[in-house]
Amino acid sequence: MICSENCQYPWQCMICDRVSDYFIKQCPGCQTPKEQFCRSMNTNCIILCINQDELNYQEQFQTIGIIEMECNQDRHKQEIIKLKISKISTKEIDDNEYFKKEFIIRPLTVPQIQSPQFQSVTQEQANDGVLFESTFQYLNDMDLVIFENRAKAQMFLNASKQNNLQCPIKQYIELKSVFPFQKPQLTMNDMLRWLKIPFSSQQFALTSVVIELLKRSYTFQTQMLQQLQFPIPEEQYRLQGFTNLILFDIQVSCIEDNRQNYNQEIIEISAKVYDIDQRKIVRNFQKYIKPVDNPIISEFCTKQTGIKQFQINNGISLQQAINQLTDIFKELGRFCIITKGDFDLLILKKEAQRKNIKLVRNFTYYINIKKVFPKSLRSKTSLKDPSMTEMLECCGLLQYDNHESETAKVDDLANLVDYLIFNENVRFDEKMLQYTCKI
Known about the structure:
The protein is α+β, with helices and mostly antiparallel strands. It folds into three domains: about 1-60, no CATH class; about 65-230, 2-Layer Sandwich (Nucleotidyltransferase, domain 5), CATH 3.30.420.10; about 240-435, 2-Layer Sandwich (Nucleotidyltransferase, domain 5). The protein has 14 helices and 17 strands. It has a six-stranded mixed sheet, with helices on both faces. The chain has a six-stranded mixed sheet with strand order 14-13-12-15-16-17, sandwiched between helices. Helix 5 runs parallel beside helix 6 (about 205-215). GO terms for molecular function: 3'-5'-RNA exonuclease activity; nucleic acid binding. It comes from Paramecium tetraurelia. This is Exonuclease domain-containing protein. Keywords: Exonuclease, Hydrolase, Nuclease. InterPro entries: 3-5_Exoribonuclease (IPR051274), ERI-1_3'hExo-like (IPR047201), Ribonucl_H (IPR013520), RNaseH-like_sf (IPR012337), RNaseH_sf (IPR036397).
């Protein structure tokens, strides 16, 4: 119960700075719950008697541990190379003094630092780093452990397994899932912005976010705890949507003058099967297709695609290529085709209809990677969907000497999908689907 005398004074939202009447429960501007983020104004002559049980304000944890990390850029064997451990006492949160320690971890299976231009750890530092298990002694006496997201918690568990160690953490809280302002692709930058925390870098900013939440009377409850156990098949199935992704791309014939009566035909199909659980390519498919309407491709087409006439002559029919791809589909679980634009499956559908080739249902829906590329990574000055080159550059994956062949382009698509899943927590699911036609 809350009793008050002369409580007719406003309060100001800490998020949008809107000034509102005291007796409302949440900010009418940004819907912020008042008890979580607000600051009172003109608080003279206020007497508040608060029943702690009714408000459920009692803190559940006394010592909170925060684990932050940086990993190498190797897509097959991701390892922790830098670890920060912080311990915060909820009773002394206003003192701004807490335990914190950073470690450089010596890589186990990938000793060479990958993409050093994107890492804060040099090769020399990694060589002189400590063993991963030496950090476990600092995880004692913690009532609660907080990770930024589920992927980071999984990285910690995987590091324990790689070193043949028993993971010392059994339960944790994923801050992303309990942050007061949740959205599908919540990032660290979003948390810093919502809390108005100035920070020069997002790396190792998690501790600042947790401290600010505690200072604003946010409480972590036992019902927020998650088990540090992976994989969870039913959860992975529900959240990820698909067990495999087909990274798909085609090349078509073309001429320089682009006559209206010229029928473009598919002359190459490239595809890779990306297994989400294994985090790697498990199947490759690449076939040259013999065109029917225009069996001789132009020099302009060869210049544009890199495909030569002798490769076309040794190719197979479009019907045979579709049949072979369909056989691959039958061996997979729930999967979806990923493209780098709308053109690929639309031109496939058009040519299949013209040549009376029946397509299975899996060819009628797809995900355009440009449409689902996270807004947090896009250019703030452009309203258009990013190009493949721009997406690779935003993710630090662009290789300027890697765009000569169609296979290399599909490799780029595979690297981009892998990065988005495990670095940006993008979940490819049914909400992202586009259709060439409805069935």
